[in-house]
Amino acid sequence: MHRKTSREILADEPTASLDFQRGRHVVEMIRMEVHKRNQAAVMVTHDERILDLADRLYCMEVGKLSEVKR
Known about the structure:
alpha+beta; Rossmann fold
């Protein structure tokens, strides 16, 4: 039996219970794996301290999703 590997990583508040240093390290590891394996990651977070690690940013306000231009 051949199992397909998912091409996406879904991360819901991956830094929620971590201090800044550990939280940043977790997101750096996610980013490294995504780039190494040519995958995509979708991360939901309120932690604005790690937004610089994202390739793209989207914001949801009042049920509307929009890309954040940087």
